[in-house]
Every structure is written in C-alpha cells, then in structure tokens.
Amino acid sequence: MNQLQLFFELGLTHVLDINAYDHVLFFIVLVAVYSFKEWQKVLALVTLFTIGHTLSLIVSSFGIFTVDSSIIEFLIPVTIILAAVYNLKIADKNTTARKHYGQYIATLFFGLIHGFGFSTYFKMIATGDQKVLPLVGFAAGIEVSQILVVLAVLGISFVCQSLLSISRRDWIIVSSSIVIGIVLPILFENWLW
Which residues are the signal sequence here (predicted)? Predict the structure, then answer.
C-alpha cells in the first residue's frame, strides 16, 4: 500500500471512527437546516470547513503555529454547541432567503479549530521529514468522509421531513437539541477551569 493511500484511509477512518464522533456531530448541526435542494450552500460550507482545517493541519504539522491540545479539546465542543444554538435560533426561518456570510466565516473559523484537533492525531502518525504526501492523503480522506456524513445527514433529513412528515422546524430543533445533549458532557469533561 502506498503512502498516499494509507493516509487517505487513515483520514477517512479517523472521521468515521465511532470514538471520534465529535466531527460527525458538527456536520449534523452544520447541515441540519438545509436540504438537497440547497446543495450549493452545503458544498460551500463543507469546502470552507475543509479549507480551515487543512490550513491548521499545515501550520501545525510543519511547526509554524500550534495550539495547546487541551484548549482545542475544549473549543471543539464549543463550536458544535454554537452551531446547534444557531440552528435553534433560525429554525423558523427560510434558509434560501438568508445571507450566509456570517455562517461562512464561522464555519471557516470552526474548521481551523477542528483542524488543530486533527493535527495532534496527524503528528502522531506522520513521522519523518516527508509530510506533504501524507498530509494530502489525510486531508483527502477527511474530505471524503465529511461528504459521506453530509450526504447521510441530508438523506436522514429528507426521510424525516418528506416520508415521516416531520416539519423542517421540528427536525432542526430535535436534531440540534440531541446534539447539544450529547456534546454538553464532552464540553464539561474538557472544561479548562
């Protein structure tokens, strides 16, 4: 198995690992307010998140800038809760009519935070001087897994809203509230003070 494929698989499985569910929870709340019809907005958000986490992976992996892992482990659940609370705030609003600039900037910033979380794992598995190829493979694996998670969330959303007749508002409130309930213990477990 070549190095690119190995790190691609490591990136893919790192996100889809049942023990690393914080990333999946973030994507649930990121796209809970959207449908397949709004795929361009979803793609923009996922791409901005990927840009953010790839940038922080790069600067951390090459020792340009690092952040204490305890701070990142605290901030990751904060980003998830903030995204979920935002969903609760806009649950009654039409997403097609809104401007998304603030959400785009927040998603890019949240990607930076999550990327520093990935960088700790990446630095453990990528040893030696050759980091570019492993980094490309790892980032590509993460991106593919993110797309799979987003498609799954959009599919579940479609089933709940179209086939089970759950209102869009109720879907957003219930899915975001469940995520908050799962993430709050993680936040308290990683509390900095």
Answer: none
Q: How far apart are CA 114 and CA 15, in angstroms?
A: 11
Percent share of the chain, pLDDT over 70 = 95
Q: What is the DSSP string of 111-156?
A: HHHHHHHHHHHHHHH--SS--HHHHHHHHHHHHHHHHHHHHHHHHH
The whole-model pTM stands at 0.90
Cβ contact 95:38 at 8 Å: yes
pLDDT in tens, 25-38: 999 999 999 999 99
Core vs surface per residue 115-124: b (16+ CB within 10 A) or e: bbbbbeebee
Q: Are 57 and 180 in contact (CB under 8 A)?
A: no
Chain centre to alpha carbon of residue 116: 12
What are all long-range contacts of 100-105, with beta carbons under 8 Å and residues at least 24 apart?
A: 100/41, 100/44, 100/45, 103/45, 104/44, 104/45, 104/48
Whole-angstrom CA distances from 119 to 58, 80, 116, 138 are 8, 18, 5, 10
Determine contact, residues 88/146, Cβ cutoff 8 Å: no
* CB-CB neighbours of 55 under 10 Å: 16
Q: Encoding tokens for residue 177?
A: 């509230």
